[in-house]
Amino acid sequence: MLDAGLTTRMSGSSYKQFGKEVLCTQIHFSMLEAIFEIDHEVQRQLDPKKRRDIRDFILDSLEKGELFYFSPFVFSSRGNIQEIDGGFVLKPGCSIYVLDAQHRMSAIASAISQLDGESGGS
What we know:
Layout: E1 8-10, E2 13-17, E3 20-24, H1 29-35, E4 36-37, H2 48-64, E5 74-76, E6 81-84, E7 87-90, E8 96-100, H3 102-118
């Protein structure tokens, strides 16, 4: 969770879907890692094989120089994102919660960690 004094701002678009406010944004993975949490009460347990398969797909694609895409990640802000002029802000000290992306996020983090290890962490 973020420190109470930090503010996370992001650009994006908002709209309503099935009566719910939806924010569509694109952020760096490092920012996402800093603001998300997994609610173990609602998420199934992480499947290490699925994470490994996705990580290997990422690493193989990078090694071959092939582009790859993932479907959008879905999170719940649980009311902790406010619309401001020119974008959105996550309330200080709050997180967003994974609804759909747990395995992909874990696989990306694992791939980055492996690549950092191969490059000596630079």
